[in-house]
């Protein structure tokens, strides 16, 4: 995978200080159910009363945002991440009649094996058949914000969301951007969304690192609306019809992520 952050076309906006990477018809990957399609995400409310905990990382109030990964493996990695193994928990935290070295997961696995149930992290993969893997082509022209670049982090202080100021947050680092505080990350996205860059264009969205590994980048694509309802050709993302999600045995990207996450399953 080409390292976007080392691309010669990457530049710093002279007006905002934000680091920009060219959209340039780049291809990224997204898993979605056909009932929604590749480019039909939820419209987020404008009201400030709604909890943003269910929102995705760089959603913008009053807008729609599509998420994709730079590789097929990344698309599977983001979807399956909640199933990854967790750090071991001592069984003695919950039970008195266990050994000091007993782990909760091991005891659960033993009981489930004895009962004939599927062991933890051995998953029924049939639900994946409900998805399709879409190839999304980013707009021909324009830019994405490399939000985790040092200059971009400094630029956030130049354009601080009022809600962060009110909360007394004095600095935003990569740690905060990759954290679970959606009120923080979505406030930053909403603040950056209307800002005009030095070429008088608006950013198409945000490129950011995955919380689950450095092997792929993630892309938050803002589906901007215009008075005519659609943006001009060359300024909107497009997507193919998607391909069927096949079992790991004949699906190398899925098989690779299953191995990385130490997951097993049946189709």
Would you mind describing this structure in some detail?
The chain is an alpha+beta fold and 267 residues long. Helices cover 22% and strands 18% of the residues. It has helices spanning 72-80, 104-115, 150-158, 162-166, 174-177, 182-192, 252-260; strands spanning 11-12, 19-22, 27-32, 65-69, 122-124, 132-137, 143-146, 205-209, 217-222, 238-239, 243-244, 264-266. The strands form three sheets. A six-stranded mixed sheet has the order 1-2-7-8-9-4. Helix 1 (72-80) packs across helix 7 (252-260). It is globular.
Helical stretch tally: 7
Rg from alpha-carbon coordinates: 21 Å
Number of strands: 12
Average pLDDT, rounded to a whole number, is 88
The strands making up the biggest β-sheet line up spatially as: 1-2-7-8-9-4
- Note the run of SSEs as H and E: EEEEHHEEEHHHHEEEEHE
The number of domains is: 2
User: What is the terminal separation in angstroms?
Assistant: 29 Å
Protein name: RES domain-containing protein
Summarize the structure.
The protein is an alpha+beta fold and about 270 residues long.
Fold blueprint:
Blueprint: E1 11-12, E2 19-22, E3 27-32, E4 65-69, H1 72-80, H2 104-115, E5 122-124, E6 132-137, E7 143-146, H3 150-158, H4 162-166, H5 174-177, H6 182-192, E8 205-209, E9 217-222, E10 238-239, E11 243-244, H7 252-260, E12 264-266
Parallel strand pairs: 5-12, 7-8
Antiparallel strand pairs: 1-2, 2-7, 3-6, 4-9, 6-10, 6-11, 8-9
Helix pairs in contact: 1-7
């Amino acid at each position: 995978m080409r390292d976007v952050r080392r691309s010669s076309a990457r530049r710093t906006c002279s007006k905002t200080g934000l680091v920009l990477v060219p959209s340039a018809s780049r291809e990224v990957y997204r898993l979605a159910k056909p009932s929604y399609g590749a480019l039909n995400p939820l419209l987020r409310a404008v009201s400030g009363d709604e909890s943003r905990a269910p929102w995705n990382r760089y959603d913008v109030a009053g807008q729609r945002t599509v998420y994709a990964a730079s590789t097929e493996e990344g698309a599977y990695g983001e979807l399956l991440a909640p199933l990854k193994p967790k750090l071991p928990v001592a069984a003695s935290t919950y039970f008195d009649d266990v050994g000091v070295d007993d782990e909760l997961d091991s005891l659960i696995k033993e009981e489930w094996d004895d009962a004939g149930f599927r062991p933890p992290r051995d998953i029924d993969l049939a639900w994946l058949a409900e998805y399709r893997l879409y190839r999304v082509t980013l707009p021909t022209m324009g830019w994405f914000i490399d939000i985790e670049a040092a200059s971009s982090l400094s630029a956030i202080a130049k354009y601080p969301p009022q809600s962060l100021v009110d909360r007394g947050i004095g600095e935003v680092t990569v740690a905060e951007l990759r954290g679970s505080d959606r009120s923080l990350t979505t406030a930053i996205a909403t603040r950056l969304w209307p800002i005009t860059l030095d070429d008088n264009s608006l950013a198409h969205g945000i490129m950011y690192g995955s919380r689950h590994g450095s092997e792929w980048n993630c892309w938050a694509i803002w589906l901007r609306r215009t008075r005519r309802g659609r943006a001009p050709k060359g300024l909107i993302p497009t997507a193919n019809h998607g391909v069927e999600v096949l079992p790991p045995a004949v699906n190398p990207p899925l098989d690779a992520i299953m191995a990385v996450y130490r997951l097993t399953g049946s189709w």
